[in-house]
Fold this protein.
Amino acid sequence: MASGRDWREGFVELWPTTFVQRRLADCEAPNQELLGLVRDMERENRDLTTDYRTPDLFNRDHPAVNWLRAGVNDTVVGYLRHIGIDYPIDWRIHGWPSVNRFGDYHDAHNHPRAYLSGTYYVTIPKSREKLKTRGDLRPGCITFYDPRPGVNMTAIKGDPYVNPEYTVTPEAGMLMMWPAFINHFVHPNLSKQIRVSISFNIVLKWSDDYLPDQG
Ligand SMILES: [Fe+2]
């Protein structure tokens, strides 16, 4: 375990929160297939978006799902390497589609009992209804919140603690992944076009090798 006891002179970046965002290549054809699959699933289950525990989207042998599973696994490998994990990790992906229609949003939440969480975007509305609303709305965006409440309280311009939130305007083909403890909020869809995403959890298959060294 790193500690101040083996200190070296210099600056130390403490308590990082690593987030990854990437665009999966050649996503257009798989996205069409995923959209069809999600709409088929929705016909079977009208509460698809809120009843997220079943069915598990990734537990299917379907070409587009296999394509997305490979993209997610590849992203997990890169993420773990980036944060410095240099020993074998075993995980499973549990995923579910979300279909947001006009006005739909998702309250701030995190994903208990997962190690990492993420979202892949299948289709994002290109239009927006003309409504008399306040000007600072960010329809369809996703906002992530600093897991350290209040660190922005005394921040000054230019320091890294100023912004307690990070907001992204998603696009089709984009995959994001973050530690499962990060709270995030999905802003309302203000389009008559649907917004379809696939959320997932990376759940570790436990091994005692994951226990941190105590020293
Ligand atoms: Fe979520």
